[in-house]
Amino acid sequence: MMIGRRLRALALLPALLGLAACGGGYDGAVQCAPYARSVTGLRLSGAAAGWWRQSNGVYAHAQSPRSGDVLVFRATSRMPSGHVSVVRRVVGARTVLVDQANWRPGRVEHGVPVIDVSRRNDWTAVRVWWGPIDGIGTRVYPTYGFIEPVAAQLAGLS
Which residues form the signal peptide (predicted)? Predict the structure, then answer.
């Protein structure tokens, strides 16, 4: 009887701690940085916006996307910690689909469109699909660019 109660308590632990099972092998707090770290293997920590500087000299940086890259959003007044998302697929020169956590609070989303709206086509400004309006959002978000975890692993850097 005591074992049964312990098992039930353990089963409820994720919900009690505010954790969510999110599919794709990820089972943790629904935040963008831990999610991106879990699916890419990047060895970075802290606020998402800090990943760009932290990864300098450790992982390759790029201004054009590849599948598996991490798009790093700058900190803004709306997003003081920044944001990171993982490129699932490159659709075209100015459109990617990403997987990300907590863009919509408490959710992991897959295949979310992100559009480059930068003047130089260098992915330094993007607009992101917003589910509640079923379309691309109107806000423009500044980004640093892409961290390339795959290239770093192939080069033996991570």
Answer: 1-20
How many CB atoms are closer than 10 A to CB 17?
Answer: 10
CATH of domain 28-154: 3.90.1720.10
**Own/partner pairs for 92-100, CB < 8 Å, 24+ apart?**
93/121, 94/121, 96/65, 96/71, 98/71, 99/24, 99/35, 99/39, 100/32, 100/35, 100/36
Torsion angles phi and psi, residue 48, rounded to 5: -55, -45
Give the separation between CA 148 and CA 66, rounded to whole angstroms. 8
Confidence band, pLDDT 50/70/90 cuts, at residue 152: very low
User: Alpha helix (H) ranges present in the chain?
Assistant: 2-16, 32-40, 51-55, 149-154
Cα 84 to Cα 47: distance, rounded to the nearest angstrom: 9
Q: Mean pLDDT throughout 51-78? A: 97
Whether the model pTM is above 0.85: no
Q: How many CB atoms lie within 10 A of CB 71?
A: 25
82 neighbors 100 (Cβ within 8 angstroms) = no
Give residue limits of the domains in the chain. 28-154
